[in-house]
Specification:
It is a single chain. The protein is an alpha/beta fold. The chain is built from 24 helices and 14 strands. The protein has a 6-stranded parallel sheet, with helices on one face. Helix 19 packs across helix 23 and helix 19 crosses helix 24. The radius of gyration is 30 Å and the shape is elongated. The structure holds zinc ion (2 copies). The site of one zinc ion has 4 residues, from helix 11. The site of one zinc ion has 5 residues, from loops.
């Protein structure tokens, strides 16, 4: 099949530079001081403003659609939006560039349109617009849509729009230039009629175009927002306004529900799916979903709090890093943090499916720094406890505690909750057995000696005890002889001499394998010999000061290949990769382990858990 005319965007290869296409209009507006009332180019400013608002309309609907904590019960298609779909819809706003070019061309061709009055929106203008929309735009859009479902037109054009599994507001933009040209022309009809009738105004144009976008985005939002009680009260309404469920049926079934916004035309054309209303009723009432596995995370810091799908979906689908465009949002994010501190409970932020089971990520509404405030401790434990009890009540099988939520000083690695509630059905897991396994498996075979900091911590102890049994000499950096000896006595007598206490970084100046469980200053890092590799399990990770050394990342694993609906990156990790403690919880669930994994790590289970992870298709990152 050859390249079809207007089936792809001419600026496809420009990437971000496509926005330069707005350049000529922007520079003309600037040159003629379009913000001054007397400027002849005021229309350009208004046009750019309108298109900014159009983009915002879709963005706000996207945010709403991704607020799982508020919307998950009314999701129409129950799958998550995966990276594949996000990438395909990355340039969803191409049609806005096309429509700007079309509008600018129209305004250059008909100069009188440039001087439309700002107001009013009078009854006549509204009536003409509504009438022409219903009598021309709707039936023509219906006919065009049906035509686009025929053989070649479908294959070359419209199949793109149907290529996503889960409708999203941005899916509305996912279509070929030809389809968007048709749509743009159909949008122009009612406004042209209003102008011809002498009732055209800027406000009317804004109202119609933004209303149009609002309905297009709503129809694709995948959350049922139209209450079914409305249709029960006024039955005729169901033929005048479509719903997200109605259009989702078109996306999955393809041979029904073609209308633009008014199902009336499907009724006339005999193309209404008979189950539409029943399904709408069900969706608008909401259907509960119970995850089998929950990863209980917390917010890292204010910047990272913006790395969620309901803020910016595309940003959340890439590994987190601090970006310039986040700065203007920072003050707002600080307010949200304070509000969450006061009011919020733990809430759902994202989900994915693995082998037909729903996994959710929940966030405790607390930020990393709060875990270090002594007076905040009880509040945080209360939040975690409530989340565990809620999971228990819902029927969640395994809940895994992320990062600081299992801090030893906070709750003894989860022990607090398990002791307080002995009858829990949900299994509480810190996942650190797998974290230890990942770190240990990164140490090259044949290593004779390692230097370990944070040596008496939960992970440090497990790593030391494991390695000594493999006859690896472990220099355990600790000032506390008592804590060192306690761990040393846990090792079988014949391996105890492999564990050595050291109290100075200098002692490691000939050791090239450093396992870092406690933050290292540049001065301390200087003691490492050239070529040293720093393995780490310290949060936050140490800064790479040494050019002649290499630095490992935090222990992480890649989820199995058959994971579905995964569309957000976990903090700074690559797509598809999760922290080892998250993976540990997944393995705990997949294996159906019946114990809680809290408190000290059972060293004998490190190999067991590692083998199980590999067996289920998880891979070292
Ligand atoms: Zn659609
Ligand atoms: Zn279609």
């Amino acid at each position: 099949m050859g390249a079809a005319l207007l089936a792809s965007w001419p600026w496809d290869n420009l990437g971000f530079y496509k926005y330069l296409l707005y350049g000529p209009l922007v520079s003309k507006a600037v040159a003629s001081r379009a913000w001054e009332a007397a400027s002849p180019d005021r229309w350009i400013l208004l046009l750019l403003l309108l298109f900014g608002l159009r983009a915002l309309t879709y963005q706000l609907w996207s945010s709403y659609s991704n607020m799982l904590f508020a919307t998950r019960r009314r999701r129409v298609v129950r799958d998550g939006v995966d990276f594949h779909q996000i990438d395909r819809e990355w340039d969803w706003d191409n049609f806005l560039i096309l429509h700007v070019l079309m509008a600018a061309t129209a305004l250059y061709t008909f100069p009188s349109l440039r001087h439309l009055p700002l107001w009013p929106v009078d009854a006549r203008g509204l009536a003409v617009t509504a009438l022409v929309h219903a009598a021309a735009t709707e039936p023509l859009a219906y006919a065009a849509h049906r035509a686009f479902h025929g053989g070649l037109l479908y294959a070359r054009y419209h199949s793109l729009h149907h290529s996503t599994r889960v409708p999203q507001p941005f899916t509305a933009g996912l279509a070929t230039p030809l389809e968007h040209m048709v749509l743009g022309a159909l949008m122009a009809l009612p406004l042209a009629a209003a102008c011809a009738a002498g009732s055209g105004s800027v406000a009317l144009a804004f109202a119609y175009v933004l209303g149009f976008d609002f309905l297009r985005a709503m129809g694709h939002c995948n959350i049922e927002v139209v209450p079914s009680s409305l249709f029960q009260a006024v039955p005729v309404l169901r033929y005048l306004i479509y719903t997200p469920t109605y259009h989702a049926i078109h996306h999955t079934k393809k041979e029904a529900n073609f209308c633009l916004f008014m199902p009336l035309f499907d009724l006339l054309g005999g193309t209404i799916d008979p189950k539409s209303w029943e399904m709408h009723k069900k969706m608008s009432a909401g259907v509960d979903e119970v995850p089998d596995f929950v990863f209980l995370a917390h917010v890292v810091d204010v910047m990272q709090s913006l790395h969620v799908s309901f803020v910016l979906r595309t940003f959340a689908s890439t590994p987190f890093s601090v970006q310039l465009f986040l700065l203007p949002m920072w003050p707002f994010a600080v307010l949200v943090m304070l509000a969450m501190w006061v009011w919020s409970k733990t809430f759902v932020i994202s989900c994915y499916n693995l082998r037909g089971r729903l996994h959710q990520i929940w966030a405790v509404p607390r930020y990393g720094f709060q875990y270090f405030l002594p007076f905040a401790k009880d509040g945080i434990n209360k939040q975690i406890e409530l989340a565990i009890l809620r999971a228990d009540k819902m029927g969640v099988k395994v809940l895994s505690l992320a990062a600081l939520n299992k801090n030893e000083a906070l709750n003894g690695g989860g022990t607090l909750f398990v002791n307080k509630h002995p009858d829990l059905r949900v299994r509480v897991v810190h996942g650190n057995t797998l974290t230890a396994a990942v770190i240990l498996n990164e140490i090259p075979k044949g290593t004779a000696e390692v230097f370990l900091t944070g040596a008496t911590s939960k992970l440090g102890r497990a790593i030391a005890l494991y390695l000594c049994k493999k006859r690896v000499r472990v220099m355990m950096m600790t000032l506390s002889t008592e804590r060192f000896q306690k761990i040393q006595k846990e090792a079988p007598a014949k391996y105890q001499h492999y564990l050595v206490q050291v109290t100075k970084y200098r002692s490691a100046q000939h050791c090239r394998t450093w396992i870092v469980g406690k933050w290292l200053s540049p001065r301390e890092q200087r003691w490492a010999p050239p070529g040293t590799h720093f393995h780490q399990f310290v949060v936050p990770p140490i800064i790479s000061f040494r050019r002649d050394c290499t630095y490992g990342k935090l222990a992480a694993m890649r989820l199995p290949k058959d994971v579905q609906g995964l569309g957000a990156c976990e903090y700074s990790l690559e797509r598809g990769v999760v922290h080892a403690c998250h993976a540990g919880g997944v393995v705990h669930f997949l294996e159906g382990y019946t114990h809680h994994e809290v408190g000290a790590i059972d060293v004998d289970r490190i190999d067991v858990v590692w083998e199980a992870a590999l067996k289920h298709g998880l891979r070292p990152a």
